[in-house]
Amino acid sequence: MKRISLDLLKTVAMYLGVVVGGTTLFLILSPVAGYLAYSDRPGPGWYAEPFSLSWEEFLSNTVYILGWALLLSIYAIIIALVLFGLVRLLERFKMPDLGVAIVGAVLSGLLSAYIVLGIGWYIAIGLPAIIVGLVLGMLFGAFLLPQKRSIAA
Description:
Layout: H1 2-29, E1 35-36, E2 45-46, H2 55-92, H3 97-120, H4 127-144
Antiparallel strand pairs: 1-2
């Protein structure tokens, strides 16, 4: 039981770090490159020269995005719990490792994109940030979520 609890906590923490952390990092750093990844007016797009953001604007954007990431984290925990349960169930029924990785990647990618899109509605998020969430979710689901079984087991 203790092993399952630690595995569950580790999985949730990794999901938050990879998907929420990675998407948040993208939203914080994209304005540094001159790209605004969210906004209803004038809308996401290229609006400035790279590295033309002032420190005040950078810090203001960072605080704003961290608030959004906190809201995203609530839903991401639920998604991580669902993914954990489904993938561990597949592993319990001895699905091949490749199958577990594929199912994990597809489910994690789609659910990650869904919550980034859903919570991103509050900040009028653009498509590139949703794609970042999708790709990070797929990477998590394929490589970090499945447990690698030994040949002897």
